[in-house]
Amino acid sequence: MKGLYTALMCSFDEKGNVNEKGLREIVRYNIDVQQVDGLYVNGSTGENFLISKEQKKQIFDVVKNEAGDDVKLIAQVGALNLDEAVELAQYVTQLGYNAISAVTPFYYKFDFDEIKDYYNAILDSVDNDLIIYSIPALTGVNMNLEQFGELFENEKVIGVKFTAPDFFLLERIRHAYPDKLIYSGFDEMLLSASVLNVDGAIGSTFNVNGKRAKQIFELAQNGQIEEAREVQKVTNDLIAEILDNGLYPTIKEILKYKDVDAGFCRKPMKSLTQEGVTKAEQIAERHL
Ligand code: NGF
Question: Where are the transmembrane segments (predicted)?
């Protein structure tokens, strides 16, 4: 399960329906052109928190059907409605997803016992492994080393997708739990995380910049830090412009520029203005 995973985008039509043809094209582009090791499906980048349970199932179906066994597949099933998370975990396990992942429960400021119960309830219901999805900036859930350790006591918790700029905590987790998988979540910090010996990374910009991300990761693993730093610099020039123009809609426009039918974002995310679309195309021309 090690390696580079794209946090997969989903293509929606203007009304917010899943555009299956477009989604298949995004899957193929990631596998055939970006050559990533796997896909992380229905995460933040997949606009998971803006869609219905039925749409989540539809996306899990289409991605598995298109990807087959070409790459590893991780299904993000976390939801505030625990029954839904359990149902989705069972659904994707039957479909043959290699692992599940679940975001820490958010909004209600759950205490750690409640967070632990949430993960155990999901895991008790399926015969599959789980990767914790920790993204404190969006969830407000900050777990410390001991709390990660308590979650790791469940053998089915095989790792964490660590989307935080806290390299002290990342190093402590790496040192304390060498057998657990750690995936770096911030693409602009991939080199720094790779130096700390993470097992892989999961990122939104890999949809369009997966090859470079893999280079950074592999160069760092080989100890070629100077070369890795150069590729991270080029990557961060790209990421800075994408963030400035609007993260998800800009990645979609870049995909469209590459003839991938990436469609629209779900409301309330706004679409790019014509000026923003032109900017996205210029970013693609200049950096990709
Ligand atoms: O999009 C976010 C929100 N983070 C992603 C990634 O951690 C999300 C990251 O790639 C993800 O994996 C998912 O879809 O679940 C950033 O977009 C990237 O580093 C640019 O900042 O923070």
Answer: none
Q: How far apart, in whole angstroms, are the C-alpha atoms of residue 219 and residue 198?
A: 13
Domain spans in the chain, listed from the N-terminal domain onward: 3-222
Q: Tens of pLDDT along 115-154?
A: 999 999 999 999 999 999 999 999 999 999 999 999 999 9
- Ligand 1 contact, 202 CB (< 6 A): yes
List, in sequence order, every beta strand (DSSP E) within the chain: 3-7, 38-41, 72-76, 99-103, 130-134, 157-162, 181-184, 200-203
Q: Is the CB of 239 under 6 A from ligand 1?
A: yes
223: CB partners within 8 A, 6+ apart? none
Give the Å distance between the CA of 203 and the centre of ligand 1.
Answer: 5
Reported ipTM: the value is: 0.98
Reply yes or no: is the peptide bond before residue 249 cis, omega within 30 of 0: no
Cα of 184 vs centre of ligand 1, distance in Å, is 10
Homologous superfamily of domain range 3-222: Aldolase class I (3.20.20.70)
- pLDDT per position as a tens digit, 21-41: 999 999 999 999 999 999 999
Q: What is the token pair recorded at 248?
A: 């998800």
Active site residues: 133, 161
